Structure of DNA polymerase III subunit beta:
Amino acid sequence: TSSRVQLPVLANILFTASKNKLFLSSTNLESSIKIAVGAKVEKEGEITVPGKTVAEIVQNLDAGRITLSAQKESLEIGSDNFASTISGMNASDFPNIPGSVVKSSVLSGDNFKTSLAKVLFAVSSDETRAALTGVLLVAGENSIKLVATDGFRLSQSSLKIDVKEIKKHIIIPKNCLIELEKLLVGESEFKMSVSESDKQIVFEVGNAVLSSRLIEGDYPDFERIIPKSLKVDVDVDRLEFLKAVKLGGVFARDVANVLKLEIEDGFVNVLADSTKSGSQKTKVDARVGGLDTKNMVMAFNYKFLEDFLNSVDDENIKMSFTDPNSPGVFANPKDKDYLHIIMPVKL
C-alpha cells in the first residue's frame, strides 16, 4: 500500500470473495498488486480495510485457518481463540486495478530475475530526471535488453526471448521491478503484457498480478556511452579485487569515495588516501594486456566498483580502459550478455 497516502482508501487492502477464492488488492495509483488465495466462500462480497492493521493482526496470529466476514463497513477476523472487528470503507471507493494479463509474452522467471539483479542497482534516485528512475526495456527481434543508468554508471543485461507484444522501448519504474523480484522467487516463468493506450505494464506471476504505470519521457542514448575502442584489458580474481576495494573504501569514504587503480604489468594497486583518516594500498595480481606505458592510473567511486563486483557470481572479472578520462568497461568474461560502464573520477 501507499506510504504517501493521497486518498484514505489507498492505505487500504481490498478483500474480494468470489468463486472459492479470496482476492487481496492494493494500489498507490502508480502501481498495484492483486493476489489470489484459496478459500471456502460461503457468500461473495467485498470490503476494503486498513492494510497496516490487517498486516499487524495476521503477523501475530498462530498458523491455521481464519474466518473473514464482512458486515456493512467492517471486517470481522476470527480463529479458534481470537476475534477482531476492523473498521473499513465501502469497496466502491477502491480504484479499479488490472486483474489478469492479456496478449502476453511468457518469460523465464529465473533468467529475468538474474538480469534484473544486474541492472537495478544502477537506477537513479534523482526524481528530477524521471526517465532514469526506471529500467529501460529494449525489445529486439528475439531478445530484450534491460538498461539502467544514474548518469555516473550504466548497467546492461540481455535475455534471449520472443516479445512480440512489447513495443521497442518502455521504461519500467524501479519500485515495480523490486516487487516483481520478490514475486519471482521460486517461480519458473511469468507473463508480461504492455498496454500502450493505458501506458501500463502488467505481470502475472503465480497467483499474483502486478501492474504499474510506465515512465514517460526520453531515455538517454545509452549506446553512445559505451566505448567503442578499448586499449588496456585487466583480468583479476573477483573476490581478491572486491576485498581490496572494500579495504580502500575505509579511507576513500573520507575523500568523496574516490579510489585509485594503478595498473601495471602483472598487477593492480588499489589505493586510497585521506588526510583525515589515513591511507592504504593493496596489490592484486592481474593479467594485463595492451599497456604501452609503465602504468595507467584511473580513479573511480569505490561504491560503484563494489556494486558491480557484487553483481557477478563468477571467479574472475574483466576491466577494459581507453585512457584515465574515458569510461571504464567492466564485464564477466563468462557472461557476454552483461556489460557495466563506470565513469571515472578526474584526477
